[in-house]
Protein backbone atom coordinates (compact mmCIF):
# COMPACT_ATOMS: atom_id res chain seq x y z
CA UNK A 1 0.00 0.00 0.00
CA UNK A 2 1.28 3.48 -0.86
CA UNK A 3 2.33 5.31 2.31
CA UNK A 4 1.30 8.89 1.61
CA UNK A 5 -2.38 8.28 0.68
CA UNK A 6 -2.72 6.24 3.91
CA UNK A 7 -1.14 9.06 5.94
CA UNK A 8 -3.45 11.56 4.22
CA UNK A 9 -6.62 9.60 4.91
CA UNK A 10 -5.72 8.72 8.49
CA UNK A 11 -3.57 11.51 9.87
CA UNK A 12 -3.42 14.60 7.67
CA UNK A 13 -7.23 14.66 7.36
CA UNK A 14 -7.46 15.62 11.03
CA UNK A 15 -5.33 18.76 10.57
CA UNK A 16 -6.53 22.16 9.41
CA UNK A 17 -6.50 21.99 5.58
CA UNK A 18 -5.10 25.45 5.00
CA UNK A 19 -2.39 25.12 7.66
CA UNK A 20 -1.36 21.76 6.17
CA UNK A 21 -1.32 23.34 2.72
CA UNK A 22 0.87 26.24 3.88
CA UNK A 23 3.29 23.88 5.61
CA UNK A 24 3.55 21.64 2.54
CA UNK A 25 4.25 24.55 0.18
CA UNK A 26 6.82 25.96 2.63
CA UNK A 27 8.57 22.56 2.87
CA UNK A 28 8.61 22.18 -0.94
CA UNK A 29 9.95 25.72 -1.22
CA UNK A 30 12.84 24.97 1.17
CA UNK A 31 13.61 21.65 -0.52
CA UNK A 32 13.76 23.48 -3.85
CA UNK A 33 16.24 26.06 -2.57
CA UNK A 34 18.73 23.63 -1.03
CA UNK A 35 20.77 22.24 -3.92
CA UNK A 36 21.41 18.81 -2.37
CA UNK A 37 17.75 18.29 -1.42
CA UNK A 38 16.65 19.44 -4.85
CA UNK A 39 19.18 17.18 -6.57
CA UNK A 40 18.05 14.22 -4.48
CA UNK A 41 14.38 14.80 -5.32
CA UNK A 42 15.14 15.30 -8.99
CA UNK A 43 17.21 12.10 -9.11
CA UNK A 44 14.56 10.02 -7.36
CA UNK A 45 10.84 10.88 -7.16
CA UNK A 46 11.03 13.72 -9.67
CA UNK A 47 13.18 12.11 -12.31
CA UNK A 48 11.94 12.97 -15.84
CA UNK A 49 13.19 12.02 -19.28
CA UNK A 50 15.15 14.87 -20.90
CA UNK A 51 13.07 16.84 -23.43
CA UNK A 52 14.26 16.72 -27.02
CA UNK A 53 15.75 20.19 -27.24
CA UNK A 54 14.88 22.19 -30.31
CA UNK A 55 12.05 19.84 -31.24
CA UNK A 56 8.81 21.76 -30.94
CA UNK A 57 6.87 19.51 -33.27
CA UNK A 58 3.30 18.51 -32.51
CA UNK A 59 4.42 15.34 -30.75
CA UNK A 60 6.74 16.84 -28.18
CA UNK A 61 4.99 18.73 -25.42
CA UNK A 62 5.65 22.45 -25.50
CA UNK A 63 4.30 25.87 -24.63
CA UNK A 64 5.28 28.53 -27.14
CA UNK A 65 8.92 27.80 -27.95
CA UNK A 66 9.69 26.06 -24.64
CA UNK A 67 9.88 22.29 -24.83
CA UNK A 68 8.56 20.49 -21.76
CA UNK A 69 9.95 17.37 -20.06
CA UNK A 70 6.43 15.94 -19.69
CA UNK A 71 2.72 16.63 -20.13
CA UNK A 72 1.63 17.14 -16.52
CA UNK A 73 2.05 20.52 -14.85
CA UNK A 74 0.97 22.03 -11.55
CA UNK A 75 -2.34 23.93 -11.71
CA UNK A 76 -2.76 27.46 -10.37
CA UNK A 77 -3.57 28.15 -6.73
CA UNK A 78 -1.02 26.00 -4.94
CA UNK A 79 2.03 28.23 -5.37
CA UNK A 80 0.15 31.53 -5.23
CA UNK A 81 3.24 33.73 -4.85
CA UNK A 82 5.83 31.76 -6.85
CA UNK A 83 7.89 30.76 -3.82
CA UNK A 84 8.12 27.02 -4.48
CA UNK A 85 8.70 26.72 -8.24
CA UNK A 86 12.05 24.92 -8.03
CA UNK A 87 10.70 22.44 -5.48
CA UNK A 88 7.61 21.70 -7.58
CA UNK A 89 9.80 21.14 -10.61
CA UNK A 90 12.13 18.85 -8.62
CA UNK A 91 9.09 16.75 -7.63
CA UNK A 92 8.47 16.04 -11.31
CA UNK A 93 5.97 18.61 -12.57
CA UNK A 94 6.86 19.41 -16.18
CA UNK A 95 5.76 23.04 -15.76
CA UNK A 96 4.38 25.19 -12.98
CA UNK A 97 1.50 27.67 -13.12
CA UNK A 98 1.83 30.18 -10.27
CA UNK A 99 -0.84 32.57 -8.96
CA UNK A 100 -3.53 33.70 -9.13
CA UNK A 101 -1.80 37.01 -8.54
CA UNK A 102 -3.51 40.40 -8.44
CA UNK A 103 -1.97 43.87 -8.85
CA UNK A 104 -2.18 44.67 -5.12
CA UNK A 105 -1.70 42.24 -2.22
CA UNK A 106 -4.97 41.01 -0.70
CA UNK A 107 -5.85 38.69 2.20
CA UNK A 108 -8.57 36.66 0.45
CA UNK A 109 -11.76 35.54 2.15
CA UNK A 110 -12.07 34.91 5.86
CA UNK A 111 -11.32 31.39 7.15
CA UNK A 112 -12.45 28.67 7.03
CA UNK A 113 -12.05 28.68 3.29
CA UNK A 114 -10.71 25.25 2.35
CA UNK A 115 -12.34 21.88 3.03
CA UNK A 116 -11.36 18.28 2.30
CA UNK A 117 -13.97 16.03 0.69
CA UNK A 118 -12.38 12.80 1.82
CA UNK A 119 -14.91 10.29 0.52
CA UNK A 120 -15.40 12.17 -2.75
CA UNK A 121 -11.66 12.57 -3.36
CA UNK A 122 -11.98 16.29 -3.80
CA UNK A 123 -11.49 19.69 -2.21
CA UNK A 124 -13.77 22.68 -1.81
CA UNK A 125 -12.31 26.15 -1.52
CA UNK A 126 -13.34 29.77 -1.42
CA UNK A 127 -9.88 31.24 -0.95
CA UNK A 128 -10.60 34.47 -2.87
CA UNK A 129 -7.17 35.14 -4.42
CA UNK A 130 -5.14 35.52 -1.23
CA UNK A 131 -1.75 36.65 -2.53
CA UNK A 132 1.16 39.00 -1.89
CA UNK A 133 0.55 41.08 -5.02
CA UNK A 134 2.32 41.25 -8.35
CA UNK A 135 5.39 43.14 -7.13
CA UNK A 136 6.21 40.41 -4.59
CA UNK A 137 5.73 37.76 -7.25
CA UNK A 138 8.09 39.61 -9.60
CA UNK A 139 10.72 39.65 -6.83
CA UNK A 140 10.38 35.89 -6.34
CA UNK A 141 10.56 35.22 -10.07
CA UNK A 142 13.55 37.52 -10.50
CA UNK A 143 15.37 35.47 -7.82
CA UNK A 144 14.30 32.26 -9.53
CA UNK A 145 15.52 33.37 -12.95
CA UNK A 146 18.86 34.57 -11.55
CA UNK A 147 19.92 30.92 -11.18
CA UNK A 148 20.56 28.35 -13.91
CA UNK A 149 18.12 25.75 -12.54
CA UNK A 150 15.54 28.49 -12.11
CA UNK A 151 15.83 29.52 -15.75
CA UNK A 152 15.30 25.90 -16.76
CA UNK A 153 11.79 25.63 -15.33
CA UNK A 154 8.81 26.45 -17.56
CA UNK A 155 6.65 28.81 -15.50
CA UNK A 156 3.29 30.41 -16.25
CA UNK A 157 1.60 33.17 -14.26
CA UNK A 158 -2.13 33.09 -13.66
CA UNK A 159 -3.42 36.67 -13.33
CA UNK A 160 -6.60 38.09 -11.82
CA UNK A 161 -8.23 41.27 -10.60
CA UNK A 162 -8.33 42.63 -7.06
CA UNK A 163 -11.61 42.16 -5.21
CA UNK A 164 -11.93 45.93 -4.71
CA UNK A 165 -11.36 46.80 -8.38
CA UNK A 166 -14.68 47.76 -9.95
CA UNK A 167 -15.76 45.78 -12.99
CA UNK A 168 -15.21 48.74 -15.34
CA UNK A 169 -11.51 48.87 -14.34
CA UNK A 170 -10.91 45.12 -14.42
CA UNK A 171 -9.04 45.15 -17.75
CA UNK A 172 -6.41 47.48 -16.29
CA UNK A 173 -5.68 44.98 -13.48
CA UNK A 174 -4.95 42.30 -16.08
CA UNK A 175 -2.76 44.69 -18.11
CA UNK A 176 -0.74 45.70 -15.04
CA UNK A 177 -0.13 42.08 -14.00
CA UNK A 178 0.79 40.96 -17.51
CA UNK A 179 3.19 43.84 -18.03
CA UNK A 180 5.00 43.23 -14.74
CA UNK A 181 5.30 39.47 -15.17
CA UNK A 182 6.14 38.84 -18.82
CA UNK A 183 9.90 39.35 -18.48
CA UNK A 184 9.96 36.46 -15.99
CA UNK A 185 7.52 33.85 -17.24
CA UNK A 186 6.93 31.58 -20.23
CA UNK A 187 3.18 32.02 -20.45
CA UNK A 188 0.32 34.02 -18.96
CA UNK A 189 -3.14 32.73 -18.03
CA UNK A 190 -6.02 35.20 -17.76
CA UNK A 191 -8.24 33.92 -14.96
CA UNK A 192 -11.87 34.96 -15.29
CA UNK A 193 -13.27 31.75 -13.87
CA UNK A 194 -12.63 31.62 -10.13
CA UNK A 195 -15.95 31.40 -8.26
CA UNK A 196 -14.54 33.20 -5.21
CA UNK A 197 -14.18 36.80 -6.40
CA UNK A 198 -17.62 38.41 -6.69
CA UNK A 199 -18.56 39.10 -10.32
CA UNK A 200 -15.36 37.60 -11.76
CA UNK A 201 -17.03 34.85 -13.76
CA UNK A 202 -19.35 37.40 -15.40
CA UNK A 203 -16.20 38.60 -17.18
CA UNK A 204 -16.32 35.40 -19.26
CA UNK A 205 -19.05 36.83 -21.48
CA UNK A 206 -17.46 37.81 -24.76
CA UNK A 207 -18.40 41.50 -24.37
CA UNK A 208 -16.47 41.66 -21.10
CA UNK A 209 -13.74 39.24 -22.04
CA UNK A 210 -12.62 40.94 -25.25
CA UNK A 211 -11.31 44.15 -23.59
CA UNK A 212 -9.70 42.08 -20.83
CA UNK A 213 -7.82 39.84 -23.24
CA UNK A 214 -6.84 42.84 -25.35
CA UNK A 215 -5.56 44.61 -22.24
CA UNK A 216 -3.60 41.53 -21.15
CA UNK A 217 -2.08 41.29 -24.64
CA UNK A 218 -1.16 45.00 -24.48
CA UNK A 219 0.49 44.42 -21.09
CA UNK A 220 2.52 41.57 -22.60
CA UNK A 221 3.66 43.74 -25.51
CA UNK A 222 4.60 46.59 -23.17
CA UNK A 223 6.66 44.25 -20.98
CA UNK A 224 8.60 42.24 -23.56
CA UNK A 225 9.47 42.07 -27.22
CA UNK A 226 9.09 38.27 -27.12
CA UNK A 227 5.77 36.84 -28.25
CA UNK A 228 4.17 35.79 -24.99
CA UNK A 229 1.78 32.79 -25.06
CA UNK A 230 -1.51 34.02 -23.60
CA UNK A 231 -4.22 31.65 -22.35
CA UNK A 232 -7.68 32.13 -20.88
CA UNK A 233 -8.90 29.83 -18.09
CA UNK A 234 -12.59 28.98 -18.16
CA UNK A 235 -15.18 27.65 -15.71
CA UNK A 236 -16.81 24.23 -16.11
CA UNK A 237 -20.22 25.72 -15.35
CA UNK A 238 -20.54 27.68 -18.59
CA UNK A 239 -23.04 26.53 -21.20
CA UNK A 240 -21.72 25.05 -24.43
CA UNK A 241 -22.65 28.15 -26.45
CA UNK A 242 -20.72 30.39 -24.04
CA UNK A 243 -17.70 28.11 -24.26
CA UNK A 244 -17.78 28.15 -28.04
CA UNK A 245 -18.03 31.94 -28.08
CA UNK A 246 -14.90 32.15 -25.91
CA UNK A 247 -13.03 29.68 -28.11
CA UNK A 248 -13.98 31.74 -31.17
CA UNK A 249 -12.69 34.88 -29.43
CA UNK A 250 -9.35 33.21 -28.60
CA UNK A 251 -8.97 32.35 -32.29
CA UNK A 252 -9.86 35.84 -33.40
CA UNK A 253 -7.42 37.45 -30.95
CA UNK A 254 -4.61 34.97 -31.65
CA UNK A 255 -4.39 33.58 -28.13
CA UNK A 256 -2.12 30.61 -27.47
CA UNK A 257 -5.06 28.68 -26.12
CA UNK A 258 -7.38 27.71 -23.29
CA UNK A 259 -7.02 26.21 -19.80
CA UNK A 260 -10.11 24.14 -19.02
CA UNK A 261 -11.34 24.07 -16.32
CA UNK A 262 -11.45 25.92 -13.02
CA UNK A 263 -13.38 24.55 -10.00
CA UNK A 264 -17.15 23.98 -10.23
CA UNK A 265 -19.99 25.62 -8.31
CA UNK A 266 -22.35 22.85 -9.38
CA UNK A 267 -22.70 21.29 -5.89
CA UNK A 268 -24.71 21.77 -2.71
CA UNK A 269 -21.91 21.73 -0.17
CA UNK A 270 -21.84 25.47 0.55
CA UNK A 271 -19.82 28.36 -0.82
CA UNK A 272 -16.82 27.93 -3.07
CA UNK A 273 -15.63 25.73 -5.90
CA UNK A 274 -15.16 21.97 -5.88
CA UNK A 275 -12.13 20.28 -7.46
CA UNK A 276 -10.89 16.73 -7.84
CA UNK A 277 -12.97 13.65 -8.70
CA UNK A 278 -16.41 15.36 -8.59
CA UNK A 279 -15.23 17.71 -11.35
CA UNK A 280 -13.69 15.05 -13.57
CA UNK A 281 -16.55 14.23 -15.97
CA UNK A 282 -17.57 17.81 -16.65
CA UNK A 283 -13.97 18.96 -17.09
CA UNK A 284 -13.48 16.19 -19.64
CA UNK A 285 -16.64 17.22 -21.50
CA UNK A 286 -15.46 20.83 -21.64
CA UNK A 287 -12.00 19.80 -22.83
CA UNK A 288 -13.55 17.70 -25.55
CA UNK A 289 -15.81 20.54 -26.69
CA UNK A 290 -13.01 23.11 -26.68
CA UNK A 291 -10.65 20.74 -28.52
CA UNK A 292 -13.11 20.32 -31.38
CA UNK A 293 -13.23 24.06 -32.01
CA UNK A 294 -9.76 25.33 -31.11
CA UNK A 295 -7.36 26.11 -33.96
CA UNK A 296 -4.73 23.57 -35.06
CA UNK A 297 -1.90 25.74 -33.82
CA UNK A 298 -3.50 26.54 -30.47
CA UNK A 299 -2.80 24.75 -27.18
CA UNK A 300 -5.33 23.22 -24.80
CA UNK A 301 -4.44 22.57 -21.16
CA UNK A 302 -6.93 20.19 -19.53
CA UNK A 303 -7.42 20.23 -15.77
CA UNK A 304 -10.04 18.90 -13.38
CA UNK A 305 -10.00 15.62 -11.51
CA UNK A 306 -6.90 14.15 -13.11
CA UNK A 307 -5.87 11.57 -10.51
CA UNK A 308 -4.10 8.83 -12.45
CA UNK A 309 -2.67 8.11 -15.88
CA UNK A 310 -5.99 6.87 -17.19
CA UNK A 311 -7.59 10.24 -16.36
CA UNK A 312 -4.69 12.07 -17.99
CA UNK A 313 -4.89 9.87 -21.08
CA UNK A 314 -8.62 10.55 -21.38
CA UNK A 315 -7.91 14.29 -21.35
CA UNK A 316 -5.19 13.89 -23.97
CA UNK A 317 -7.37 11.65 -26.13
CA UNK A 318 -10.17 14.21 -25.84
CA UNK A 319 -7.78 16.72 -27.39
CA UNK A 320 -5.79 18.31 -24.57
CA UNK A 321 -2.13 18.93 -25.39
CA UNK A 322 -1.14 19.15 -21.73
CA UNK A 323 -2.75 18.47 -18.38
CA UNK A 324 -2.55 20.17 -15.01
CA UNK A 325 -3.52 18.97 -11.56
CA UNK A 326 -3.87 20.32 -8.06
CA UNK A 327 -6.16 18.13 -5.94
CA UNK A 328 -4.64 14.74 -6.77
CA UNK A 329 -1.22 16.07 -5.78
CA UNK A 330 -2.67 16.91 -2.35
CA UNK A 331 -4.28 13.48 -2.08
CA UNK A 332 -1.49 11.36 -3.57
CA UNK A 333 1.59 13.17 -2.30
CA UNK A 334 5.08 14.10 -3.40
CA UNK A 335 5.91 11.04 -5.50
CA UNK A 336 2.82 11.49 -7.68
CA UNK A 337 3.81 14.13 -10.29
CA UNK A 338 7.06 12.40 -11.31
CA UNK A 339 5.37 9.00 -11.46
CA UNK A 340 2.60 10.40 -13.67
CA UNK A 341 4.97 12.13 -16.06
CA UNK A 342 7.19 9.06 -16.40
CA UNK A 343 4.21 6.83 -17.17
CA UNK A 344 2.77 9.29 -19.66
CA UNK A 345 6.14 9.64 -21.38
CA UNK A 346 6.36 5.86 -21.68
CA UNK A 347 2.99 5.92 -23.51
CA UNK A 348 4.15 8.34 -26.17
CA UNK A 349 7.53 6.72 -26.71
CA UNK A 350 5.93 3.38 -27.56
C1 LIG B 1 -7.38 25.27 -2.86
C2 LIG B 1 -7.45 25.62 -4.32
C3 LIG B 1 -7.08 26.89 -4.75
C4 LIG B 1 -7.15 27.22 -6.09
N1 LIG B 1 -6.76 28.46 -6.50
C5 LIG B 1 -6.80 28.78 -7.81
C6 LIG B 1 -6.36 30.05 -8.24
O1 LIG B 1 -5.90 30.88 -7.46
N2 LIG B 1 -6.46 30.33 -9.57
C7 LIG B 1 -6.92 29.42 -10.48
O2 LIG B 1 -6.98 29.72 -11.68
N3 LIG B 1 -7.32 28.20 -10.09
C8 LIG B 1 -7.25 27.86 -8.78
N4 LIG B 1 -7.67 26.63 -8.40
C9 LIG B 1 -8.17 25.68 -9.42
C10 LIG B 1 -7.11 24.70 -9.93
O3 LIG B 1 -6.03 25.36 -10.56
C11 LIG B 1 -7.73 23.72 -10.92
O4 LIG B 1 -8.18 24.41 -12.06
C12 LIG B 1 -8.92 22.95 -10.34
O5 LIG B 1 -8.69 22.65 -8.98
C13 LIG B 1 -9.16 21.63 -11.09
O6 LIG B 1 -8.05 20.78 -11.02
P1 LIG B 1 -7.92 19.58 -9.93
O7 LIG B 1 -9.20 18.82 -9.94
O8 LIG B 1 -6.73 18.80 -10.38
O9 LIG B 1 -7.69 20.25 -8.60
C14 LIG B 1 -7.60 26.26 -7.04
C15 LIG B 1 -7.96 24.98 -6.60
C16 LIG B 1 -7.89 24.65 -5.27
C17 LIG B 1 -8.29 23.26 -4.84
Structure report:
This protein has about 350 residues and is α/β, with parallel strands linked by helices. It has a single domain (about 5-45, about 60-350), classed as Aldolase class I (TIM Barrel), CATH 3.20.20.70. Helices cover about 40% and strands about 15% of the residues. The chain has helices at about 5-10, 15-35, 35-45, 85-90, 135-145, 150, 170-180, 205-225, 240-250, 280-295, 310-315, 325-330, 335-350; strands at about 60-65, 65, 70-75, 95-100, 115, 120-125, 155-160, 185-190, 230-235, 255-260, 275, 300-305, 320-325. The strands form three sheets. It has an eight-stranded parallel sheet. α9 (about 240-250) links the parallel β9 and β10. The relative contact order is 0.15. Mean pLDDT is about 95; it is low at about 55-60. The chain binds flavin mononucleotide. Flavin mononucleotide binds next to β6, β11 and α12.
Characteristic key phrases:
alpha/beta; 13 helices; 41% helix; 15% strand; globular; binds flavin mononucleotide
SS-based class = alpha/beta
Give the integer mean of the pLDDT values.
Answer: 93
Low-confidence stretches: 53-58
The CATH superfamily is known as Aldolase class I
CATH fold-level topology: TIM Barrel
- In DSSP terms, counting alpha (H) and pi (I) runs of 4 or more, how many helices? 13
CATH architecture: Alpha-Beta Barrel
What percentage of the residues does DSSP assign to strands (E)?
Answer: 15-25%
Integer-rounded radius of gyration: 18 Å
The major β-sheet equals: 8 strands, parallel
Give the CA-based shape: globular
Along the chain, the helix and strand elements come as HHHEEEHEEEHHEHEHEHEEHEHEHH
Amino acid sequence: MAVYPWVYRNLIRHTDPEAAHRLAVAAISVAGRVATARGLLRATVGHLPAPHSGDVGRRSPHIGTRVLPGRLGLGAGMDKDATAVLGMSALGFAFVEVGTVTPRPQPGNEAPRMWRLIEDEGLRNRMGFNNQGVEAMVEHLRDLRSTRPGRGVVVGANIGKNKTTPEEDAAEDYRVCARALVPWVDFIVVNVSSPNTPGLRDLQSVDHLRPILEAARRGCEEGTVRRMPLFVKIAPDLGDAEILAIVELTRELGLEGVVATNTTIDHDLGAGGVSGAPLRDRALEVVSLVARHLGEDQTLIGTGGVADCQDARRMLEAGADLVEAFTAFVLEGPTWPGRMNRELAADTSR
